[in-house]
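Structural prep section.
Before we set up the soaks we want a predicted structure of the protein with coenzyme A in place, mainly to decide which crystallisation condition to try first. Input record follows.
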Amino acid sequence: MIREFKTSDFENIYELGELLHSNYRKLYNLDSIINEEYNHLFIYEDNEKILGFIHITKLYETIDIVDIVVDSGARHRGIGSNLLDYVISEYDDVKLITLEVNVSNKVAIAFYQKFGFEVVSIRKNYYNTDDAYLMKRGA
Ligand SMILES: CC(C)(COP(=O)(O)OP(=O)(O)OC[C@H]1O[C@@H](n2cnc3c(N)ncnc32)[C@H](O)[C@@H]1OP(=O)(O)O)[C@@H](O)C(=O)NCCC(=O)NCCS
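Run finished without errors. Recording the C-alpha cells verbatim:
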C-alpha cells in the first residue's frame, strides 16, 4: 500500500533516509516538511512495515524527486517502480519531472532510464567531491 506519510512514520523514514545520506536527519526536518504544501512524501507499506518512500516537491507543473529509497532487503522487487508510478499517476497534470543522481549510482540511473528519464547536464561536486547528473522526464 502506498500512502502519505504521517508523524508516526518519522523514525522509519529517517532510518531509510540514512541508507542514502548518512546525515539525512540533519538534511531533512520531517516536522516542517509535513506542513509544507509543495513537499509530498509517500511511503510504501507492506504488513505494517515501511519498505520505501519517495519524497518530491511539486511546484506548478514541475515535480522534483528529492529522494527515493527502498529498504536494502526489498530492492529490485518493483517497490521503487510502484512509488514512482504512483507519483506519476497521482499528478497527471505534471509536464516535467527532474532529479539529481550521483554519477556513480548506476542502479538508480538504470532505474530512472527505465522510466524515460534522460541526462540533461552534470553538476560538478554536487555531492561533496562526487558529481551529479541532472535528469529530466518530459519537457
Ligand atoms: C533506486 C531504487 C529506489 C530502485 O528501487 P527498486 O525497488 O529496487 O527498483 P525496481 O525493483 O522497481 O526496479 C526497476 C528498474 O530499476 C533498475 N534496477 C533496479 N535494481 C537494479 C539493480 N540491482 N541492478 C540494475 N538495475 C536495477 C532496473 O532497470 C529495474 O527494472 P527490471 O526489474 O526490469 O530489471 C533502489 O535501488 C534504492 O533504494 N537504492 C538506494 C537509494 C538510491 O540510490 N536512491 C536514488 C537516489 S537519486
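Observations: Helices lie at 10-17, 24-27, 30-33, 79-90, 106-114.
Flagged for discussion at group meeting.
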